[in-house]
Amino acid sequence: MSPSSSHSEPALFQLKGSMLSLTVLELTEYDLTKLETQLAAHISQAPQFFVDAPIVLNLSLLENLAPDFRLQSLITLCHSHGLQVIGVKAQQSQIQQQAKQLGVAIINQPGAEHTTETKAEPPAPIAEPEPAETSDNCRPTKLITQPIRSGQQIYAEGADLIVLAAVSAGAEILADGHIHVYGPLRGRALAGVKGDTQSMIFCQQMAAELLSIAGHYKVAEDLKNDPLWGESCSIALAENLLKIQAL
Asked: Which residue intervals make up region (Disordered) (predicted)?
């Protein structure tokens, strides 16, 4: 095969940067028995949400690891509950060595847990205007005027997000800052995805599948028990808990 003919062949792949929204399981103590009990209780609150859910294990808080620490045992426990471990966040050499032996990615870059996934055959994308320019002490704003349908995902990187229409069940909206939805919010809304705990969510009709601020979240099973389900409300983070208040 000549060099000229090889250059004419279509590329088989592309390398692209993207943003995913992933769950991080942060472990403060290595006790598999306790973890088994507590994890089972937590997942039972919203079993469908955790089916085959990709997660990152944050083990950086574990101190004085015992010689019998086994990352494989921890991953096996997660798999038994339907959680798919795709990476480990840890500085300890003992954990990093075991992760390499198991072929598990080591994720220690800031913000590496947050990436955006595009489905294999997504619906037609919504035309998204460029963020508006603002002063240095304000975030830019991304404005969406069309309904966001099931399977679509909108991410306001480095910005607040304003949606002037409905967010359908199965849709996902993310922002590094605040999220405002002037319509029914039936999908997933994740504000402060890079860790801004001051971010808030505002919606005209709260009927969400999931609400999250800086990684702290509530799913529909919890939200439906709130007296403001279906009402206009704001959601903020206080003492690592989501607080829902009427508007």
From this structure: 113-139
Q: Are 198 and 192 in contact (CB under 8 A)?
A: yes
d(CA 22, CA 41): 20
Confidence class for position 20, pLDDT limits 50, 70, 90: low
Spatial separation of the C-alpha atoms in residues 81 and 50, rounded to whole Å: 8
Q: Cα separations (Å) of 7 from 12, 13, 15?
A: 12, 14, 18
pLDDT tens, position by position, 82-118: 899 999 999 899 999 999 999 999 987 544 444 333 3
Q: Which residues contact 4 (CB under 8 A, 6 or more apart)?
A: none
CATH of 142-246, one of 2.40.50.140, 2.115.10.20, 3.40.50.970, 2.160.20.70: 2.160.20.70
Transcribe 166-194 into DSSP letters. Answer: -B-TT-EEEESS-EEEEEEE-SEEEE-TT
Does pTM top 0.70 for this prediction? no
The domain covering 23-106 belongs, at the CATH homologous superfamily level, to ACT domain (3.30.70.260)
Q: What is the pLDDT of residue 181?
A: 96
Q: What are the structural domain ranges in the chain?
A: 23-106, 142-246
